[in-house]
Amino acid sequence: YGKSFIRVSNLQSGNVLRQIHMRKNLFAEGITLFHHKLYQLFLKSGRGFVYSATSLKKISEFAVKGEGWGITHDEKYLIMSNGSPTLYFLDPKADYKVIRKIKVHDGSRAIKQLNELSYFKHTLYANVWYLDAIAMISPETGEVTGWIDLSQLHPEQNTLSSDCAVANGTAVNPLSGNLIVTGKCWSHLYEIQVLR
User: Fold this and answer.
1) Rounded CA gap, 88 and 109, in Å?
2) Separation of alpha carbons 105 and 177, rounded Å
3) What is the pTM of this model?
4) DSSP state letters, the chain
5) 49-68 b/e with 16+ CB inside 10 Å = b?
6) Backbone torsions φ then ψ of 163, nearest 5 degrees
7) pLDDT digits (tens), the chain, 196 positions
8) Cβ-Cβ contacts under 8 Å for 49 (sequence gap 6 or more)
9) CA 190 to CA 181: how far, in whole Å?
């Protein structure tokens, strides 16, 4: 709260090209770029915002049941997490109606704390809150098909508080298919080649 913003940056130089700050009563969470629009979730506001991807001008809002954590899309539906083991597929063309849900599991174990999401070539990538790992998930069944270990990227514990050093953020470079990851208060982004 009071520190949330959306920014467009040049990844090579780090220069900020555009930035908008959220109101102090909003805790910004996941975002995804879908059909030239940017969709954004907030932790506890019960709504999401839609922006023009080019101007970052707010276009509309939509209702969110429960908390908003991570959001991505599969070229047809928005896919949302709320910290539970369930992922929700929403239709932006039908008033964000929940089209289907999947329970994420690794064998018989439900995977909770699903946070930021990315989607690439029929695989969902989910950062798991307080775990230095990303789950690779089948979007059809919810089965975890693999894990990406981020523990070697984790900053030294003595430089950051444990609450501020957790892995938290995934994106896919659409040109290379590589995964870009970071964490809360991390000073770097890392690009990882995922062997599929």
Assistant:
1) 19
2) 24
3) 0.92
4) ----EEEEE-TTT--EEEEEEPPTT--EEEEEEETTEEEEEESSSSEEEEEETTT--EEEEEE-SS----EEE-SSSEEEE-SSSEEEEEETTTTTEEEEEEE-EETTEE---EEEEEEETTEEEEEETTSSEEEEE-TTT-BEEEEEE-GGGSPPGGGS-GGGSSEEEEEE-TTT--EEEEETT-S--EEE----
5) bbbeeeeeeeeeeeebeebb
6) -70, -25
7) 888 999 888 888 889 999 999 999 999 999 999 999 999 999 999 999 999 998 999 999 999 988 999 999 999 999 999 999 999 999 999 999 999 999 999 999 999 999 999 999 999 999 999 888 999 999 999 999 999 999 888 776 545 555 677 888 899 988 888 999 988 878 888 999 987 6
8) 39, 40, 42, 58, 60, 61
9) 5
